[in-house]
TrEMBL record:
Name the UniProt record assigns to this protein: Baseplate J family protein
Domain of life: Bacteria
Family matches, as InterPro entries: Baseplate_J_M, Phage_Baseplate_Assmbl_Protein
Lineage per the UniProt record: Bacteria, Bacillati, Bacillota, Bacilli, Bacillales
Record's signal peptide: none
PANTHER family in alphabetical order: PHAGE-LIKE ELEMENT PBSX PROTEIN XKDT, PROTEIN JAYE-RELATED
Residue span, Baseplate J-like central domain: 182-261
Residues that span the membrane, as ranges: none
Length: 357
């Protein structure tokens, strides 16, 4: 709004107001005196422009966006810690029970045993919040010696850790809160309460799947994959515990019987023929697989919108053609067919990848 009030324009306006019989050349007394003032005015107008940007939610960011949306009861999701499965065996390769609160390291992340699943299997919580706790798998090293321990393995992601909510996501949540008006068990209310649970990345809701008073919620996890039973049970207990379903002991209103289910996946096989320049199929295959996986992930992120997912061969081909050394691409198929795939409710996951030259 004030971008035209630059140092030069302000200084020139001030010099124009000085009588012409006064020396106004650069370096003169009047020029130097006004230049300092003009600089301060330019800084002031610049700060006013920044302030105007920060007071409106659609142009704000960081702390100021958080303060703006908090006025409407919307708050960012903080980073959460991943819950992983740890498998422990003794020196004879038999399941071994370990003390609760035992700590183990894998690369730069420390995991702490918080509860037991079964003999030799424990829930481990990453001490570092964020998605970084979801990423590594393999052998754990105990921080303190545990007598008789043979091997410790970091296995499945039970409840994914999440990074702090981004400004873009927070703004979208703010707009949704203004448009949806969540209240008293309406669709927006269910969506908000389920999305607030750690590990949930999206939800689709279905009314009366088993008659009046029933609700089905299908969820995807925050890594945009099929959630495991641990996460499903966690969401079920928070919304409507099975043993007292419909009694209002969760966040669902009394009288609502809610069933939480995992989104179903469809394996997608990819095949294509490439014309390569100074590359072999072995060299280009990891790059093509990476492109394919990233494309499927982008598609899965769209699932929560509730629309059918469409895997388009043309989109995949254009991305593969952007790989250095790929000159042309023909005969691309998805699940053996040369056409797009439409998934009304499922999400796609990578199947086989076949590349011909």
């Amino acid at each position: 709004m004030f971008e035209h009030y630059t140092f030069q324009s302000i200084l020139q306006d001030m010099l124009d107001d000085v009588q012409d019989d006064v020396d106004k050349r650069e370096g003169s007394i009047i020029y130097d005196a006004l230049a300092k003032t003009a600089m301060k005015f330019a800084e002031m107008y610049s700060n006013i422009d920044i302030l105007l940007r920060l007071i409106f939610a659609d142009t704000s960011d960081g702390e100021y966006l958080r303060r703006r949306v908090a006025e409407h009861g919307v708050y960012p999701d903080l980073a959460t810690k991943a819950i992983r499965k740890g498998i422990f065996t003794d020196t004879q390769s038999r399941p071994m029970n370990i003390p609760i609160n035992s700590r183990f390291r894998l690369n730069d992340i420390i995991y702490q045993a918080i509860s037991q699943i079964s003999d030799g299997e424990y829930r481990l919580e990453a001490e570092t919040p964020g998605v970084i706790g979801n990423q590594d798998y393999g052998d754990l090293l105990p921080i303190e010696s545990i007598q008789g321990l043979g091997k410790a393995i970091l296995s499945d992601v039970l409840i994914p850790g999440e990074d702090e909510e981004s400004d873009e996501s927070l703004y979208n949540k703010f707009v949704e809160s203004l448009n949806d008006h969540p209240f008293g068990g309406n669709r927006a209310d269910y969506r908000k309460k389920i999305m607030d649970i750690q590990g949930v990345g999206g939800v689709q809701l279905y009314r009366t799947p088993n008659g009046g008073g029933t609700v089905k919620a299908v969820i995807i996890d925050s890594t945009f994959n099929v959630p495991n039973k641990e996460l499903i049970d966690s969401v079920q207990n928070a919304i409507d515990p099975i043993e007292v379903t419909g009694e209002g002991y969760g966040t669902a209103p009394i009288g609502h019987k809610v069933v939480i289910e995992a989104v179903q996946s469809v394996s997608v096989d990819f095949g294509t023929t490439l014309l390569l320049n100074d590359l072999t199929v072995g060299q280009v295959e990891p790059l093509v697989i990476s492109v394919f996986e990233k494309y499927l992930e982008e598609i899965r992120k769209e699932w929560k919108k509730g629309d059918s997912l469409v895997l388009r061969i043309s989109h995949l081909e254009s991305r593969i053609l952007a790989i250095d050394g790929v000159q042309d691409i023909i005969n691309t198929t998805l699940n053996g067919n040369p056409g797009n795939i439409i998934l009304p409710r499922e999400i796609p996951v990578k199947g086989s990848v076949m590349i011909n030259e």
